[in-house]
Every structure is written in structure tokens, then in C-alpha cells.
From TrEMBL, chains A, B:
Origin superkingdom: Bacteria
Protein name in the entry: Ornithine cyclodeaminase
Enzyme class (EC, first level): lyase
Gene Ontology terms, MF aspect: ornithine cyclodeaminase activity
UniProt keyword Lipid metabolism, yes or no: no
Keywords on record: Lyase
Species assigned in the record: Rubellimicrobium thermophilum DSM 16684
PANTHER family recorded: KETIMINE REDUCTASE MU-CRYSTALLIN (PTHR13812)
């Protein structure tokens, strides 16, 4: 059970029978998500999630797609990210409030839902703060498997916040990265990441600058959180044969790369209408050519074209990735029993008799 | 507690400390929503909800508004309905699957969420199947208070499904309706409504046809569920001085009224861009004049102009109504303690150390 505190006031019992199966929605709490990760194993789960996403990217055309639906405030954004493959419906609620960490709150929190398209009934509610961290890292590594130079062994990670360690381990698990070079504007963040990555079979090098971090790296991951135009990588820092995994620039007015880098790169994106609003390419004209990553994954378009090319995965996160992750978690939760059941859907015996059900519950 | 069944498998305990307050989201289950309705009293709650909606309709311009976001299937639709007033964010998940009742499922199920716009953290998760039934009825009665002929005492209700009794009681509570005349294509639905409305200080007249139901009625409520163009009311059935409360026509291809009735009516809607897609007025040209109900409520536009006018509230349900209802329920749930707390948001001590929190939870 995930209820850690008693209900503040006792409530009278009614003689309403226990809700039926249809009324009880499987719920994966934070506690159960953490148990699930440890049951499966973190790196296995990262590989599984990449495989689940790859499977769905191959059938990209079966999904209904749209930009996510934002609500902006001065401090951040709340977004809904729905999609469906016609059988299953999924959406994620996610916020991005960079200022939160100053008051001890997460920058990004999330939860998600799956439902049956044929009945509209929810079939899973799940925490997604942890799951989003995992799927984002799995997505990055999956893209890099198609775009990074062959035999990449060294990755720089600029920005050592909540997503950093997940990125490092996903790239280790999926690409065989051996060395990660970390830099953050706040040395305490780097220290935290170094500590967390001990005994993970990775050489972890804390660096004193972004310039030092990218030395010898075939892959550069940028994953900073400030909600503003920033230049984490300037033009002269990026040489030929680099893969850039740009994770942090993911909402209007929030970018990480110098425009000149974009002009020298082959750019790969998830869903162009969303990325043109939110990604690094918001700095470019709306007709600047980009390749949709699913086409590379499905074998329809080339990924990396030459050893010297600069490839850029302009990642903003797309609804289908969350869908894949939720479908995966649902299956594993059912297998392991690592879920609770929420009394979330009213379920009268006679579906037209909602009123009667309510009245029969009178204490 | 709302967990009616044990967790299917035992899970190992970890030494993770109990989540903090920020991580535990207040959750109003179906059980607690029913307790809340009985604690407050059904008619009081209908009046309170109408007042809450009226309050928010008066400040209509402070809200971000958009059409709801649908995902259609052959059987029905799943929709997300977000809005915010800049301080609080709310959304509802709702489905409409008319075919569901044949397999013992609800046509409409729903749940909703409130969050803090400044942090993005959820502050309430609530069942909304029952709450939607209540707020829809409260909205109908609120509109009728501004539009129906003065001194209306008799209402016809065409369609006696899950929403019927809520409509009857809301119109009794808010307008003083004394007689309801019920008709449904399925006599069993009418029987159920008659049974449920016993001892409610209402004259309840089951009728053999729609024509009989509207005899002597000043208000005609249509609330059928079929997902297709239908003609519940034909032109010759509607005389002068009637208020039509059209609740059932609420998605593309789903209407209840003959087009000729619309052409003779003063039409009032919630949010025109959404109603033109979903409401009765989808039968009319996109520039057919309509009045936004909030302008009537705020005193900026007249409602009923004459004793003989036909007024039509072309109701489809709008996000602000759910927002109002959720804000109301949140306050009442906090007062009464009728809620649980869900472990839905990961909350590491150091917000950048999500990974460390996950690792420390290793069994």
C-alpha cells in the first residue's frame, strides 16, 4: 500500500459493496515504480524501454500525433501529452519549473494514464517522474545508437541535474560508453553525479569547464534546466564527427546551443511540429530541413552519413515515448503485482443508475 | 482508505523514509465523493456548484480557454479538458462511449486534477464521474435561471439515463421546478428515474412519448446518449416561450434537435469554438449568431428577451465548469478530511538527486 499517512478524519462506513474490477484502476505509486526498477534492474529496464520505444517508432504512422498542450506561467509550464494507436490511449501530465529546485521541489514531475480506446475506461495510472527520467535517457541512447560515430566510448555531459546519471547509464547500457566527462555550473551537482556513478563500471571525470568536458568526447549531451535562451555549447567548441544529444532545450525560449552549430549539423527530431516550437530549431527558419528520427529507426532515411558529420538529436520528448513506457510498465506491474488499485471510476450495477448508486451509499 | 483489494503480491520493504507532504497528492475516491455528497446534502451541493460556476463565469476572461482535445474511435471519444486562471491549473479526463451501457459499463466516466501553476505540482486528484453528473446538472439549472420563462414549474426530460435525476433535482433546487415529465425510448430507464425520484418533493410523470412529455412544460431538457445525428425534438413540437436545455448533443455527429428549431431560437453557448464543433449548432453555418452564456451571467448581454422567445442552451460542457467543481471539492475535502493521499510525485530530499533517491530505495 502506498498510503503513508492516515486519513485525517474518520468517515462513516456505508454498506456499498466493494467496487467491481472495472472501477478499480491499477496504480503504480512512486514506491512501486522504484521497486519495479530494482526488480528488473536499472540497466535492463533502460534497454527494455529503448526497445519498447523503438518498436513504437517503427509503427509511427499508426499513432495520432499532436504537439503537447501547454499552460505557461512566469515560473514554468504544465503540459498534457496525449496519443493513441487506436487501441490504447495514453497521456502524460508533466511540468517543467526550473525555479522549483530553489525551494526544494523537483523541476519536472509527471504522472501518466493508459485507457482502452474501445470503452474509454482507464487501465493504468502511474507515477512518471522516475519513469520520464528513464524513458528520456533510453530515448537519447536509442537515437545515439543510430547517429553517434561508431565505436563512441567517451561522452561529455553538460548539466549534472536530475537527468544526468540516467543519461550516463543508458549510454553505457546501450552504446558501451566507457567514460563520462561531467560539468555543471554548480560543482555540487557534479559532485552528486560523481558519487552516484561510483561502482557503475564507468570512468567518471569531473571537469572544471564545458571546454574541458568535451575533450575527446564523441558524444556531447547537454541537459541543463534554465528556462531561457542560453549558449551551453558555442560554435567553436564543436568539431567534426561529434554527436550532440541536446536534451535540455525543450520549450519556447529555452535553448542550449549556438545557432551556428545547428547550421553545421544534420538535425534529427521526434515530431517536427512540436520540435519547431520547443526545440533548438526554434532558432531556425520554419522550413529548415530536419529528419524525423522514426524514419531513421524504420530504415527509411539514413542516420549518420559520414565519419565527419555533426549529428544533432534535438530532443524535446514526445508523447509516443511516454506511451511506450507506460505500456511496458503496465505489463511489468501486472506480472510482478507491484501496483495498488484505485477506486477512481464510479461503477453502478446498472450503468444508467449512477444516481441510485449514489443514493444507496447514503450512510 | 479506498484500497478494496490487497496488493496481489507482497513486495519487499525498503528503508526509504515516508514521502513528504509535497509528494502525497490528496485523492478523492468514488467512495469519498459519495460521502462528501451526503455530508453536504445533494441539493445543497448542486446549489453550491452552480454558485461556484457562476463565480468563475463572471471572471471568464481570467481563464485560458481552448476546445477540448479529443481522441475518437468507432465506439466513442476520450477527451482532455484543461484550463487555468493563472494561479490554479485544472484538467478533466472524460470519455463518452454510448455503446458501453450494453456491456454494463458507464457511458461517461471521468477524473480530474488540480495543480499549482507556480510549481506545477498537483494538489488534487479526484473521481469526476459523479462530480461531472452534478456539475452538468448545476450548469443546466444555472443557465435556465437566466434563460427560462419566469415562474417555470414544469420540465420535460427526454432521455432518462444516468444524468436524468441530477437534472431534475438541480432544477428543483435552483428554479423551484415542481413537475418533471419523463420519457425515454427505453421504458426501463424511465421506471428507474421514477423510482429514484420518489420522496423528493417533485411530481414525477412518466410519459408514453416525447410529445406527451412536453405537454405544459416551460423547460424541455434533452439528454440522450446516442452518438449520431438524431431528432429528439422536431420543429412542430416546440412552441413559443419554451426554454430548451440541450445536454445530450455534445460531440461531432451527435445532435438532438431539428435544425428548424435552432433557426427559431435565441442560442446560448459556453465556449463558441468548442460548441460549433460539438453542439447542436454544428448543424448551422459557422457564423450563425450565438450569445456566450458568461456574458449573460456577467450582466453584459440580455438572456431571455421576451415571454414568447425560444431560448436554447446548447450545452456541451466546458473545462471551466470542471475547474469550478474541482476547486469546490478540494475545499470541502480538506475541511471534512474525506480524501486519501497518493504517493504520486517523486520527492527526493535534494531535488536534483532523483537518481540517489531511486538507488537508496534498493531493497
Amino acid at each position: 500500500m502506498t498510503m503513508h499517512q492516515p486519513m485525517p478524519a474518520a468517515a462513516p462506513q456505508t454498506d456499498r459493496p466493494a467496487p467491481s474490477d472495472k472501477a478499480l484502476i491499477p496504480f503504480v505509486s512512486v514506491e512501486n515504480m522504484m521497486r519495479l526498477v530494482h526488480r528488473i534492474g536499472l540497466e535492463t529496464m533502460l534497454r527494455d524501454l529503448a526497445e519498447a520505444i523503438e518498436h513504437d517508432f517503427r509503427r509511427w504512422e499508426s499513432f495520432e500525433k499532436r504537439e503537447r498542450i501547454p499552460a505557461h506561467s512566469a515560473e514554468g509550464v504544465i503540459e498534457l501529452m496525449p496519443t493513441t494507436d487506436g487501441e490504447v490511449y495514453g497521456f502524460k501530465y508533466v511540468n517543467g519549473h526550473p525555479i522549483n529546485s530553489r525551494s526544494g521541489l523537483q523541476t519536472v514531475t509527471a504522472f501518466g494514464l493508459l485507457a482502452d480506446m474501445h470503452t474509454g475506461y482507464p487501465v493504468l495510472l502511474s507515477e512518471m517522474t522516475i519513469l520520464t527520467a528513464l524513458r528520456t535517457a533510453a530515448m537519447s541512447a536509442l537515437a545515439a545508437r543510430h547517429l553517434a560515430p561508431e565505436g563512441s566510448k567517451v561522452m561529455a555531459v553538460i548539466g549534472n541535474g536530475a537527468q544526468c546519471e540516467f543519461q550516463c547509464l543508458a549510454f553505457r547500457a546501450l552504446l558501451g560508453i566507457e567514460e563520462v566527462r561531467l560539468w555543471d555550473i554548480d560543482p555540487a551537482a557534479t559532485d552528486k553525479a560523481v558519487r552516484n556513478l561510483r561502482n557503475r563500471d564507468l570512468r567518471v571525470i569531473p571537469c572544471a569547464s564545458a571546454e574541458e568536458a568535451i575533450l575527446g568526447a564523441q558524444i556531447v549531451t547537454t541537459v541543463t534546466a534554465d528556462k531561457k535562451f542560453a549558449t551551453i555549447l558555442s560554435d567553436n567548441m564543436v568539431g567534426p564527427g561529434i554527436h550532440i544529444n541536446a536534451v535540455g532545450g525543450d520549450s519556447p525560449g529555452k535553448t542550449e546551443l549556438a545557432r551556428e552549430i545547428l547550421l553545421r549539423s544534420d538535425i534529427f527530431v521526434e515530431y517536427p511540429p512540436q520540435t519547431r516550437i520547443e526545440g533548438e530549431i526554434q532558432q531556425l527558419p520554419p522550413d529548415h530541413p530536419v529528419t524525423e528520427l522514426w524514419e531513421v529507426i524504420a530504415g527509411r532515411k539514413p542516420g549518420r552519413r559520414s565519419r565527419d558529420a555533426i549529428t544533432l538529436f534535438d530532443s524535446v520528448g514526445f508523447a509516443i515515448e511516454d506511451f511506450s513506457a507506460l505500456v511496458y510498465v503496465r505489463a511489468r506491474a501486472m506480472e510482478t503485482g507491484l501496483y495498488d488499485r484505485l477506486d477512481m471510476i464510479a461503477d453502478p450495477d446498472d450503468p444508467r443508475d449512477l444516481f441510485g448508486m449514489l443514493m444507496r451509499a447514503r450512510p
